[in-house]
Amino acid sequence: MSLTARVALAVGSLLLIGGVVVSLAAFAYGREAARETYDRLLVGAANAIAASITIVDGAPVVDLPMSAFELLALAPDDRIAYRVVGVNGETLTGYDDLALPDKRGRGDTSFFNASFFGEPARYAVVTRRFAERSLNGTVHVIVGQTLLARNALALDITRNVLFGLIISGTLLLLLAVLVVRSALKPLARIGEAFARRDPHDLTPMDTKVPREAAVMIQALNGFMARLDRQFSSMQNLISDTAHQLRTPVAALRAQADLAAEEADEDRRRAIVERIHRRSVSLGELLDQMLSRALVLHRSDSARREVVDLRDVALEVLESGDLQVLAPETDIQLDIGDLPVPVLADSPSLCEAAKNLLTNAVRYGRGPVRLGVSRDGETASLWVEDQGEGPPEAVQNSLGERFVRSAASDGKSAGLGLSIAKSVAEAFNGRLAFQKGQPSGSRVVLVFPLVEGVS
Amino acid sequence: MRLLLVEDTLDVAEAVIIRLERSGIACDLARTVEEARGYLEAQPYDVIVLDINLPDGLGTDLLRDMRAKGDRTPVMMLTAQFSVDDRVSTLNLGADDYLVKPFDQRELEARVRALYRREQGDKGNEITLGTLTFNPTAKVLRKEGVPVTLTRREFSLLELLIRNRGSVMSKDRLYEGLFSFNDAEVGLNAIELYIGRLRKKLAGSKVHIETLRGLGYKLDVDA
Amino acid sequence: MRIVRICLLFAVAFLQAEMLRAQEMTHLFGPEDAPRRLVIRSTTDTDVFAGVVEAFLAERPGVSVLYEQWGSNDLYGLTSKDCRSGEVGADVVISSGVHQMVKLVNDACAAKYQSALTRALPQALRWRDEVWGITREPAVIVYNRSGVPPADVPRTRFDLLDLLRPEDSPYAGKVATYDIEASGLGYLFAFMDSQEASTFGALLESLGRTGADATCCSAEIIEGVATGKYLLAYNVLGSYAEGLAREDDRIGIVLPQDYTLVLSRALMIPKQAGNMSDARAFLDFLLSQQGRTELRQALLIAPGLDGDSADAGEGISETALRPIGLSPSLLVALDRQKRDQFIRLWRGAFPGP
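Output (structure tokens, whole complex):
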């Protein structure tokens, strides 16, 4: 269902319920108003009649005033009942069979309902007390009228209210539809803008839209930015891969050609040995490149959680790859007894640490230490060996996407470092090179320590 | 030992077969899922090495069918897939181990032999705790029949705790138990982390490891 | 006891005579063996209404009309009695005693009816869709043309007062009006006068002082004026006067210019009417163009007073017309104490026979 229809339905049903309530109220009010109006008429007429009573020769005489009846005739089609009851309950004038009700309210004026010649009617009773030498007592004046005018007035009031209600309800409904339409216009515009967009255009949308829609646009822009980053990192990966794989494959092919033509058994064995080394390093290179892609992907998409760097270190140590890679290298784990929590993605950190450790094992000098430490506000995961550390050139070129040397000499220390650097930066950290303690060199991943987590 | 290699890349297959036969393992090669089914019907194997991507289907489907039929032959999956999730899911399907391509031939042989050993291992030594079965000879832990991958250190630690289950093991004693490994110096503090890793891997079984602050750890089976 | 019995006997005899006299005339219009019969009880003289009834019957061969002519008080009494007892009497009641008709409606004796023609009536000429005013008849002053010099002809009530004021007024004892006890119409006119203007008191005093005569019937009064028994007659129903004046040039007619009461004879259909459909048809006929033409010919709608033209008869201004509307306020006229007081007041001027 469209939003317009929803709002229209909601407003409509609201109006309907409100309408029913208001109608009932209007009807009640109409009846009340009509009752009051015409009761006043009755009382006015009854008072006029009561006022016309005089005492003549000790007997009350009613000089029925025309005005009283003209007042009642304001309800033009209603029949009039009246009776003046003397002090002894005798009828002075009027309809004899109009009975005074048994129960009457206190005071000089009261009302009751009864039928008049078979038609429902409303009556007012007004009393007048005489205290004269010749007459002492109460004279009651009963004036009644049928209900046609009352009902007509009540109906009229109700009808007027309902009429107003229907008009205003319809207007409100139309207004609601218009308002919703105009409120939703930006959505249609956004949709149109999207539809017109070039499929490769991932630039942010114009956020000059209503605030509510801006939230959506901002989310979309954020999404597109992520998509854009992933898209370009994918493109980078492809171009890196193309570059980095072509060189070793070319080398492999050249060596293989050579081996095929080489007659000398010793030299051929040497060539095969070189092919083997090359292919192993090619596999590692591939792993690293994929790992880098994974890291880039995860750093953008994975949910961040609190990770204990000590767990990361242990995971790397336990991953088993190192035993295969360099079973003879001695690796020491250096961790404290306090957790070192950081906000990051565990697999990404593992990849980064694994790369650092791999570099240290492969290119550094033993013994290798893998450690985790906390220092004030920062958390560090480091790898230390007794070598010189990565060459200055590699350290400086880490910002570049790939390091050419990795491909050309079959070694990929730079790529591993660049992965570690990407990971560090993805989680608000950095990659640092330090002197070893007490000697050697250290590569450190530094992250902000998460407060309040033990 | 009789091994079925299901692999469609002939170069890799040949290299693997030559290598394994040189060390005395009899190998059959199936290049499709269909062919593999034929071999499996014809005779039993001690170990199956199974590639995932095959010309007529997925190796994982074959694995699932085997397990569904109750065939418990150890299976080593070869995968070119990279992400962590994939590796875990192959284990959940009932594989006993996996290797990521490209792999080292020596590694493959070592793991195949481990699988074989595990299967031949003395079932008499097996310890069952809740939904766990722990086989120290074969060095295998299963949770509800599914193998749980443990590193050597984790395995040793668990073995120590299981053998002394019900009693408190101090950090120092556990550390000494692990100290026999001289390949890496992990430090006393790592014990706590290893316990954490074990707990995660044992989650869902009826076995739990309790920390007694200042005293050590105790492994217990829920009643 | 004996005396009481004799008195009772006399009373009964008198009542019977009254009843006989009350139903003055019965006339059957249309074929005697017509399948449908419409009973009309009316205060209007049969010969005045005959033309209207005949015109109604002209296109209704299957209908006959039994026309009963009644005095207004008797008609009211009879209709009221029928209403209480539920006895089927008249199908249509037409009376010049409109206050009595209003009372009958108030007492729930009438049947409701609505048609396009009844709805076209002005509001003052219908009440509750149960009673309708069908005629327009002014209350006029009638004079004897030979007895009253043109200069003396009263144009207003004040003129009349002036004529009666001198001690030796030639009009003393020569003025007639309705006996309001004998004539329902006379009572109504007098009562309306009393409500209408302060001249009523003075008029009553003058008439009383000069020994004016009060009698029962229109015909009698007008006949008296024609013969010179009376020189002036006050509050005479214009339709009768006009009818006689056309044949008798001794009679002059004046519509009082200070104000002229206009009576619309009221028609009602009793709720227990036996022939409701013809009664309704008759009402519609009276209100139709044709019916109004007939009424006009019968002088029951006075020229210029049918509301069709602004030209009021004899140059009387529209504002001087006082139609007696069909309103529940007419109930006052019938209030027993009011009536007693009013008659007592009136009797003060006209001691009666």
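Chains C and B do not touch (no CB pair under 8 Å).
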